[in-house]
Design goal:
The complex is a heterodimer of chains A (153) and B (206).
Chain A lengths: L18 H15 L16 E2 L3 E2 L6 E7 L12 E4 L2 E3 L4 H9 L11 E6 L5 H13 L4 E5 L1 E2 L3
Parallel strand pairs in A: 1-8, 3-6, 6-7
Antiparallel strand pairs in A: 3-4, 4-5
Chain B lengths: L13 H15 L6 E6 L18 E6 L5 E3 L2 E3 L1 H12 L8 E2 L2 E2 L22 E6 L5 H27 L3 H10 L4 H13 L4 E3 L5
Parallel strand pairs in B: 2-7, 7-8
Antiparallel strand pairs in B: 2-3, 3-4, 5-6
The chains are: A alpha/beta (153), B alpha/beta (206).
Chain lengths: 153, 206
């Protein structure tokens, strides 16, 4: 059956004309999802503890983050209890000012929904967290979220 | 004169440029989904505040020492057993519930506990008190909080399945999407008040 005889042909070249399209699509995806880190971390990226009862933080603009961990700069020592507010190492005493500053950036109606996210290293001590918590209570910033990564049950 | 065709622009390197940009964004991107254990702090008590007197049996004491060991109700315990112990305590239902706005809630009729005299009266009276050392590791502290919340979630879920035949997280999710729905709101509120989360943080030891 001559009809089915294979025609002699070389390997057809793979058409790569659509490759740039695919790459562009990926590019746009990453461009849109990327968030440039706004604050430089002055402490080592905290190794977050894990928990199963986590909730997603909504409304990013209403979240102010406090980092706790080991300072990158050795002059602060090697304990895991350094606190970073905005982009510098601070103490718990500066927390109220930090919160009030964050409040001034949002409208008054949204203030009760503001959340403070505490990103602390798992080796930080509870004392540091409690100091911060007392300061937060002083300025009536009552919603907090202990940042943790989610584990399965 | 022969008309010359405009030469085609070579677009072969476009893919290279796009790749370069792609790799740049791939590297710089941080997909951080912020999630955490949310907690509401209690308001600052006024200066003349006198704490109410609470019966010993309605307090579930969890102590964490500086070596990250747990002491629950005076006994050593592993973190993995904490959830069960908490459920037993909350769900005991050994007596009358508290009186809210002049309305007595009466005995707990949905509790499945032992109804022991020595444990909590009612879920709305059961207080969990977590005391930790200042030097306790944060990871342990959060693991304890997590276990306690897990206990509440299980109890709420169980009640929700019994009463409304839907898991509690689904009920909450549905309410979040449809805030106007009064019957959903009532259901969610009902479950939440049946098993209110009362976890207090005691002053740390030094």
């Amino acid at each position: 059956m001559s009809k089915f005889r294979k025609k002699k042909k070389g390997m057809p070249a793979v058409n790569t004309a659509a490759l740039p399209d695919i790459v562009f699509m990926l590019l746009f995806f990453f461009m849109v999802t990327t968030t440039m880190r706004e604050t430089d971390l002055k402490i080592d990226n905290p190794r977050l503890p894990s928990a199963s009862e986590v909730k997603k933080l909504e409304h990013k603009s209403l979240v102010s983050t406090i980092y706790i961990g080991k300072a990158k700069d050795l002059k602060y020592g090697s304990s895991f209890n350094r606190i970073q507010l905005n982009d510098k190492i601070s103490t718990a005493d500066e927390v109220p000012a930090f919160i009030i500053n964050a409040r001034s950036k949002v409208s008054e109606a949204e203030v009760p929904f503001m959340t403070t996210s505490i990103k602390a290293d798992k080796e930080s001590s509870v004392g540091t967290i409690i100091d911060i918590r007392l300061k937060l209570r002083d300025v009536n910033a009552l919603k907090i979220s202990y940042s943790a990564s989610k584990t399965a049950d | 004169m022969a008309r010359r065709e405009t030469p085609e622009i070579n677009a072969g390197s476009m893919a290279d440029i796009a790749f370069l940009l792609l790799i740049f964004f791939l590297v710089t991107t941080t997909m951080n989904v912020d999630s955490g254990v949310s907690k509401k702090l209690s308001e600052k008590p006024p200066a003349d505040y006198v704490p109410p007197i609470i019966k010993e049996k309605n307090i579930f004491e969890v102590n964490i020492n500086r070596n990250n060991e747990l002491l629950v109700e005076g006994e050593r315990m592993d973190i993995k057993d904490l959830q069960e112990a908490t459920i037993t305590f909350i769900d005991n239902g050994g007596g009358e519930g508290k009186v809210e706005e002049g309305v007595a809630t009466g005995p707990c009729n949905y509790c499945k506990g032992e109804r022991s005299e020595k444990s909590s009266d009612h879920p709305n009276k059961a207080i969990i008190s977590v005391q930790s050392d200042r030097l306790t590791e944060y990871g342990t502290y959060l693991a304890v909080q997590d276990q306690l919340l897990k206990a509440y979630r299980e109890l709420r879920n169980r009640l929700s399945m019994e009463k409304y035949k839907t898991p509690f997280p689904e009920l909450e999710e549905a309410y979040k999407k449809d805030k106007q729905n009064e019957s959903l709101k009532k259901k969610v509120e009902d479950i939440k008040t049946s098993y209110p989360q009362i976890i207090s943080d005691a002053e740390p030891t030094n």
